Amino acid sequence: MSDRASILIEALPYIRRFYQKTVVIKYGGHAMVAEDLKDSFAKDIVLMKYIGINPVVVHGGGPQIGEMLRRMGKKSEFLEGMRVTDAETMDIVEMVLAGKLNKDIVCSINRQGGRAVGLSGKDGQLIEARRLKIYRDIGENRPPEIMDIGLVGEVSRINKDILKSLEQSSLIPVIAPVGVGECGETFNINADLVAGAIAGALKADRLLLMTDVPGVLDSGGNLISSMTVARAEEAMRDQTLRGGMIPKVQCAIDALRAGTGKVHIVDGRQKHAILLELFTDSGVGTEIIG
Q1: pTM, full prediction
Q2: What pairs with residue 179 in β-bridges?
Q3: Of the candidates 37, 1, 2, 19, which has an alpha carbon nearest to the alpha carbon of residue 279?
Q4: Residue 2 has pLDDT above 60, yes or no
Q5: CA 275, CA 280: separation in Å to the nearest integer?
Q6: Mean pLDDT of 61-75
Q7: Regarding beta strands 116-120 and 172-176, do their DSSP bridges make them parallel or antiparallel, or are they unpaired?
Q8: DSSP letter, residue 122
Q9: Intra-chain end-to-end CA distance of the chain, in Å
Q10: Which of 6, 186, 191, 265 is least crowded, fewest Cβ atoms below 10 Å from its Cβ?
Q11: Measured at the alpha carbon of residue 262, what is the angle toward residues 273 and 176, in degrees to the nearest 5?
Q12: Burial of 233 (0-12, 13-18, 19+ CB in 10 A)
């Protein structure tokens, strides 16, 4: 029993620290697939709201989109790690993200005693977007090639007033990363980028990026528990960081420069990873600070 009490005592200063603060969580990876992890995530979010924290959830859904495309007989194509998104694919992406997945997450949170509301970036023009341009180097003395990846977007503006009004209520926003262009086009946007943009626009105290690895690893495969922006940029230059971790760390840097207090990259395969990262002295992932 004393061990349980010590856990609560350890969490107390952090609960006090985050009271009435905004925490943006990018929810994705294995945590969105395994039933026990989905339940623990929903409980974490509800607990945060009940103790006075304002969680904002942004979710991904790449594997689920890929599975739906496969079932509909449409092959997934990627360029530079981005899903090529024609109009037909965009309809399926929106159906999966803003329809099924978003409402499943809302239902899961509500089932645990929360009051969640599902939004896509098109609701109230929450996420204004423009077409993302991807360039490929094709050799010396030649201009880079502009690659057409279709209706893939990047955030141009977050309408933070919608989220600010929800902060004053008991509602928990759950956001699908679908944006709207100036001519009404629908854009598929990387969920990490959306979460970072929302955290920056809200000047969130914390941004948590859930992934399927322990955090940022050094060249020996060891977890880096804390790193500065300068160290993170150096790790990208010397190729200590590789693959999918590079855009996550770049997203963290952009969010910090936009006014987010601190960014955490955590392993969503671990139950209650959010609470362990926020409310314990040692944490379980990597924190990135300005």
Answers
A1: 0.93
A2: 187
A3: 19
A4: no
A5: 8
A6: 91
A7: parallel
A8: T
A9: 39
A10: 6
A11: 65
A12: middle
Question: What is the spatial distance between Cα 57 and Cα 114, in angstroms, rounded to a whole number?
Answer: 13
What's at 266, amino acid-wise? V
* pLDDT, average across residues 99-122: 96
Torsion of CA 200, 204, 210, 211, to 10 degrees: 30
CB atoms within 10 A of CB 184: 7
Residues written for the chain: 290
Q: Is 227 exposed, middle or buried (0-12, 13-18, 19+ CB in 10 A)?
A: buried
Here the tokens at position 33 are 């697939």
Does residue 20 have a pLDDT over 60? Answer: yes
**Cα distance between residue 236 and residue 228, in whole Å:** 13
Whether the Cβ atoms of residue 87 and residue 151 lie closer than 8 Å to each other? yes
Phi (first) and psi of residue 229, to 5 degrees:
-60, -40
Write out pLDDT tens, residues 231-277: 999 988 888 887 788 889 999 999 999 999 999 999 999 999 999 99
Q: Is the pLDDT of residue 1 over 60?
A: no
Domain map of the chain by residue range? 20-237+244-275
Residue from 103, 277, 110 nearest 206 by CA: 277
Please, which residues have CB within 8 angstroms of residue 264's CB and are 6 or more apart in sequence?
206, 207, 208, 209, 277, 278, 283, 285, 286, 287, 288
C-alpha pair distances (Å), 85 with each of 39, 65, 66, 186, 244: 31, 11, 12, 11, 20
Q: At what angle do helices 191-202 and 245-257 cross, to 10 degrees?
A: 10
Vertex 95, ends 265 and 246: CA angle to 5°?
Answer: 25
The interaxial angle of helices 35-50 and 102-111, nearest 10 deg, is: 60
CATH of domain 20-237+244-275: 3.40.1160.10
- Give me 28's structure tokens: 């994705």
